[in-house]
Amino acid sequence: MLLSLLAGCGGGKPAPAPAPAPAPAASPAAEGSTPPAESTPAEPSRELSAVEKIIAEAETMSFEDLCKKAIEESNGKTLYGVGNSSRGKTAGASFIELLQSMDSSYTGTIEWSQPKNNSIFTMLNADVNSSTHTYSMTLIQDGNQIQSKMLDTGNLLNFIPKEWKESKDIDEAANGHPLTLQTLNKVFMFNNLGGKTFSNCWDFVAQGEAPLFMDVNSEPVGKNFLYMLTNDTYSTYLKNAFDALSDGQKSYFQPIVDEMKDEAASLGLAAPNAPYALAWIKLWCEQYNEQTDDGPICNELVTTSAKGESGLLVYSKLRSVEESPTASVNNVTVAAYQDGYQGIGGYAYKHYLQVVKTSPLPWTACAFISYMTTTTEGFAAWGKDMGGYPPNLAVAQDHSKDGYVDGVDTYPVKNDRGGEWWMSADGGRLVVEDPAYCAQVSPVMSDWIDMIVTE
Fold it and tell me: Which residue, 243, 247, 251, is CA-closest to 273?
């Protein structure tokens, strides 16, 4: 088994990642300031912690050598991991089997937990600051809080596996800092019964529309999506989609866009098309129909009674729809799959893998992270479903024909076009989360959004 895993660690063409979001413009004070006459002396370099030293060494080692280190370190012990995905438990069991195949006397285990209600940040910070430390690694989402609460504080540490970094065409800048396990998509869908269509992303915020969507304060990645719309790239997508509207449609939206010009300036948003983003965000937050989870959204949209309804939800939810006379995936259309669709097709958020600053078993944590990101077996827990895209295509599975039954294209909406298409400017045009940008604009944008949602 190990030989087959090691053979699969490199090679294969990885999915091109989207260009990183442009950095926000400097503040007015920074733009007009005069450089100091004398440069400030650099601070003396900090001594690396024991865990940081292990990570630095681990990044130079092969996966096989990391596994040997893991066996030596954790034999008879338990690695505790915590994550936003329950599938870490499945990957952990598979990883333990691999280590046992290398050393039959190995008796280490992995215990995986999935906290609820966004409590993972509190759990990890409490563990780091306690006198005893439990968690060794994490699989975590929400780029905004990861950046501000975990990376800027140093409580989570980045590890990039050697084979991952050496994989052909890996975009380390986009997916290595912090290390990305996978990018997931939430996409605009609508019930296609009754003849109603949504051919432009502005159609979802048209007068009278109430798209189904998880509340922005119950699932923070949805709020990050709204932050990212103010970025130059994605606000331009919205402006281009606006330009494609009919004159009648523009006449409804234009006054709202004009109203947002002063708002953009007061919020310090430098993107020229930020007023279009704020107008779209304002209408979306005023109109969306708040839901508790994407599962119920999907189950509603696929029914024969949901004519004309729309939503923004995880694409992979379509995989679990049970076909019946009153429900079918063929009752929904993925908006971006339509020829001529204008504007954003949804948004993308990421699952990141990190080593905890006070990790009791750092070698084992690094080996486990390498297993999940550089081997097909390690990524299988996530790769088996549509809608999740690893940076390293060598570990990905093809879902372009998931809608086929016995060779017949029975459910076309389930034929996943892949991460490269979804995140490209001439494909799905997903709004991709960037932790640094989200953390920079959230101090002003979060309250602005909350005022709209609570009105």
Answer: 243
The reported pTM is 0.88
Fold designation for 2-10+49-181+350-395? D-Maltodextrin-Binding Protein; domain 2 (3.40.190)
SS3 374: helix
Predicted confidence at residue 117, as pLDDT, reads 72
Q: Alpha-carbon distance 352 to 149, whole Å?
A: 14
Task: Look at residues 210, 187, 212, 191 and name the one whose alpha carbon lies nearest to residue 291.
Answer: 212
Pick the CATH number of 185-346+420-453 from 3.40.190.10, 1.20.120.330, 3.40.50.620, 3.90.226.10: 3.40.190.10
Q: Which helix (H) or strand (E) holds 212?
A: strand 212-214
How far is it, in rounded angstroms, from Cα 162 to Cα 373?
11
What is the distance between the alpha carbons of residues 276 and 282, in angstroms, rounded to a whole number? 10
CA distance 273 to 268: 13
Question: Tens digit of pLDDT for each residue in 379-414?
Answer: 999 999 999 999 999 999 999 999 999 999 999 999
CB-facing half-sphere around the CA of 419: CA atoms within 13 A: 26
